[in-house]
Design goal:
The structure holds two protein chains of two kinds. In chain A, helix 2 runs antiparallel to helix 3 (39-58). Chain A is mostly helical. Chain A has four helices and no strands. Mean pLDDT of chain A is 86; it is low at 1-8. In chain A, 72% of the residues lie in helices and 0% in strands. Chain A has helices at 5-9, 12-32, 39-58, 66-90. By secondary structure, chain B is an all-alpha fold. Chain B has one domain (16-195): Cytochrome c oxidase, subunit III, four-helix bundle (Four Helix Bundle (Hemerythrin (Met), subunit A), Up-down Bundle), CATH 1.20.120. Chain B has six helices and no strands. The termini of chain B are far apart. The chains are: A mainly alpha, B mainly alpha. Chains A and B meet through helix 2, helix 3 and helix 4 of A and helix 1, helix 3 and helix 6 of B.
Chain lengths: 98, 196
């Protein structure tokens, strides 16, 4: 069975630490909606940070075989490309982030 | 080991990884494209409804924020379950898997409550563009969560029959990858649909 040694020795505290960050960022995200701040430039990066934390630490991409990062990354890139392409085609003002 | 859970020798691919783990990551890569298509459809169709209810009228951000927190908690319990079996702690694995199931069901209950509330406001798949894109996106995500809960139940059953050990716990890892992906997708959906 493929399992990185790093994931076996990873202390549980780091999982809790990641959870704390995810929870805190969620609170920040909701808080931003009540403030007079531009939403897309603030919320999109926060969401991407949260997603990255889940992928890197909970899904162990950071410590596992790079092949899995490549496979998953290819899917992500295609998905992101699809999103950007269709927004550019059908809702181009969304890409003008102020 | 119970005859019902005999593990067949895994195939080692030419890439040197277990074929089942390779399959899961390939699945998650394709699911990324699938959910991207639903998310971008929601994005480009925003503001195109000719009648209500509209997002700012219908969506309950605080309720969904709590639901999001529940799902994040379930990711923690899932990864803790994996850490437990990596240390050979089967009892702990069972507890954390059970907790994950409960939290998953809690999330689904929150979704069901929200859907019921939205139906009561007159929103549906056929009501307007917002209804169509919203329910398609969150409905498919909910279906994935439901499938994940069922899958975790099977793994938990296997754990109770001695089919999961410190040296044979790929099943926990695989379901954990799927579950974390479902959480990851919801993180994006929550931001795009409810917050922006």
């Amino acid at each position: 069975m493929e399992m990185s040694q790093d994931t076996r020795r990873r202390p549980r505290l780091s999982y809790l630490g990641v959870f704390g960050i995810l929870a805190a960022l969620t609170v920040v995200e909701v808080g931003v909606t009540y403030l007079p701040l531009p939403r897309i430039p603030v919320l999109v990066p926060l969401a991407l940070i949260k997603a990255a934390l889940v992928a890197l630490f909970y899904m162990h991409l950071k410590s596992d075989r790079r092949l899995f990062s490549v496979i998953f990354g290819m899917g992500l890139l295609m998905g992101i490309g699809l999103i950007l392409a269709l927004i550019a085609l059908y809702a181009p003002p969304l890409l003008d982030i102020k | 080991m119970s005859q019902a859970f005999v593990s067949h020798p895994s195939e080692v691919t030419s890439l040197g990884v277990d074929n089942r783990k390779l399959s899961i990551w390939t699945l998650l890569g394709s699911e990324s494209v699938f959910f991207s298509s639903l998310i971008v459809t929601y994005i480009v169709m925003r503001g195109k409804s000719v009648s209500g209810p509209l997002p700012h009228e219908a969506l309950d951000v605080p309720l969904t924020a709590v639901n999001t927190f529940v799902l994040i908690c379930s990711s923690l319990t899932m990864v803790t379950a994996l850490a437990a079996i990596q240390r050979g702690q089967v009892h702990s694995l069972r507890r954390w898997l059970f907790a994950t199931i409960l939290l998953g069901l809690g999330f689904l209950s929150g979704q069901a409550f929200e859907f019921t509330k939205l139906f009561g406001q007159g929103l549906s798949l056929s009501r307007n563009v917002f209804g169509a894109t919203f329910f398609t996106l969150t409905g498919f995500h909910g279906a994935h969560v439901f499938a994940g809960v069922i899958w975790i139940c099977f793994v938990l059953a296997r754990a109770f029959h001695g089919g999961v050990t410190r040296d044979n716990h790929l099943a926990v890892e695989l379901v954990g990858l799927y579950w974390h992906f479902v959480d990851l997708v919801w993180i994006i959906i929550f931001t795009v649909v409810y917050l922006i």
